[in-house]
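Service request form, structural biology core

Requester: graduate student, group of Dr. S.
Request type: structure prediction, single chain
Budget code: on file
Notes: please return the result as structure tokens.

Sequence provided:
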Amino acid sequence: MMGRGHIHFLQLASEIRIPKAPSSVSLPSCSLAFSGIQMEAISSASFSVGSTLSSGSTARISQTRALSVKFNTNNHLMCFNGLKASSYSKCGSRSSFLDGENCSLLKHSYTCNAQAQRQRFYNIVLPQASYKVAILGAAGGIGQPLSLLVKMSPLVSALNLYDIANVKGVAADISHCNTPSKVSDFTGEAELAECLKGVNVVVIPAGVPRKPNMTRDDLFNINANIVKTLVESVADNCPDAFIHIISNPVNSTVPIAAEVLKQKGVYNPKKLFGVTTLDVVRANTFVAQLKKLKLIDVDVPVVGGHAGITILPLLSKTKPSVSFTDEEVEELTLRIQNAGTEVVEAKAGKGSATLSMAYASARFVESSLRALDGDTDVYECSFVQSDVTELPFFASRIKLGKDGVEAVISSELEGLTEYEQKALGALVPELRASIEKGTKFVQNQAVS
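Core staff response, request fulfilled:
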């Protein structure tokens, strides 16, 4: 995904808006090379750094408050590269990627008829990235690739990497990437508070990974204490931050975090998220492969929880609308539910789904940052406090805003198929037990 990706458009009517341009300029048909521009799709899509746009139409540069490139077209993307995409895209950035050097490169990339038409090109001044992200568990199997992906976000000004050991090398390595965010490392409990000061988004992948024959419940006793300790420090040092819980079992660790925050008196249910994005990523991928659809077009909501049968892909709600046989529904559902085990077994006990989890987590971080930055069209599935079912926590599609969860989208739980309705009923007892297990874990202990 990262590096220099390529995005090709057919007959694309483009409008490029760049801040503080003194006047409007029409640019000829040409190839544009963008280095380090965050690209967002209207359906909460996001492409990250280093993409190339090829267009056969005229681009227009005009003044606006922030860099945005909007592509309004009935045509489609031939291919795409990024965290999330849609056929109706707009590109936006608040970064320092397009500095003087990159502006010069961008200027020289206008090779098609530029000299002949003697087009004027204006220097671009972009606002700085402005959000601070902390990753707790940054030296681990998920933490390292996640840190790299977050480093590439043009919205991040500071990236704080924390772990109990081995994080200095990770930070040194990632700090060499020429993206705006400043990377700092923090090791051990004594430096945790400093890591969290002033942070806008806290991501917690800390904990032990799954191993062969290990259930998510086997992880509980180890990871529960880790999450509890980290969230206590979050409550003390950045209680207003968005908190992303990756540490498994998410069905229990999110309630653990909620209970800690309650006992600390700083719980805001709108800002606590269990990251279930990987289930959506897998569902979209598997459906696109099976039905030979363009992955860019596929959107499958996944509800419930983040373990085994609590993961429920609503295949009947797939966009674009597509039909499945009963056998396909059962096979796809089981594969999505057991995809983590598929990776654990493929790695022969030497790892779990670290890379795909990092990718999915980075997508959720980017969505959160866009929401904080004022994007009003950001939707993701997440395990949050919810009243759409009888359970206190439930994963479903949510709308994100500057203050966290703006809305829980309950409409997707209406009009379910018989298979989905039965699966929803079956997951409730197991999910309830996991939630209660996490809640009781904290209630039975003193919060420091």
